[in-house]
Amino acid sequence: xxxxxxxxxxxxxxxxxxxxxxxxxxxxxxxxxxxxxxxxxxxxxxxxxxxxxxxxxxxxxxxxxxxxxxxxxxxxxxxxxxxxxxxxxxxxxxxxxxxxxxxxxxxxxxx
Amino acid sequence: xxxxxxxxxxxxxxxxxxxxxxxxxxxxxxxxxxxxxxxxxxxxxxxxxxxxxxxxxxxxxxxxxxxxxxxxxxxxxxxxxxxxxxxxxxxxxxxxxxxxxxxxxxxxxxxx
Lengths: 111, 112
What we know:
The complex is a heterodimer of chains A (about 110) and B (about 110).
Chain A lengths: L3 E4 L2 E4 L5 E7 L5 E8 L3 E10 L2 E4 L6 E3 L9 E3 L8 E8 L6 E2 L3 E5 L1
Parallel strand pairs in A: 2-11
Antiparallel strand pairs in A: 1-3, 3-8, 4-5, 4-9, 5-6, 7-8, 9-10, 9-11
Chain B lengths: L2 E5 L2 E5 L4 E8 L5 E7 L4 E7 L6 E3 L2 E6 L4 E6 L8 E8 L7 E3 L3 E6 L1
């Protein structure tokens, strides 16, 4: 069955370290999205991509980057992790419509 | 600034009750409104609404959109403990962009 996976599911890192969160989908969807979810803020868009080599900034992109080298993967990199980036991160994908399918999430703690 | 506001933020009901969750929006270039259910994991899609007055229904859940008054409601009848979750409302704004702006969610707790 087609699916969307994220790894790792849990990560603890130190302030200043570079961290990469993986997202892989097997639906062959062109559109992929990264969100963070925090208490009191709901889901906020970090970056998104409409296809290979395409990336765009979302509402809260500072301190994050993405790259899209193939259809299946959109890794999210925290260049220099900060405590404010402690959050739950969700990856999502969609075909040609508004309905997005979400991965299981990665809980990141920056100490 | 585009806003999606959900109310109430949390709600506790007894099994068998009927609940109504609200989502209002102040946005430009509205295209669609979506409802998601989030238990202790990923949000899962419930409904997408694009036209006013047309009810979407799935089992005990139903939803309707009012584009004149800029809101949507999600109804759950005969609630069960399995309905306990955070319900998220999201609005799609720009045609072809497929970006969603989410509200903060309503946490529903159904007690036996």
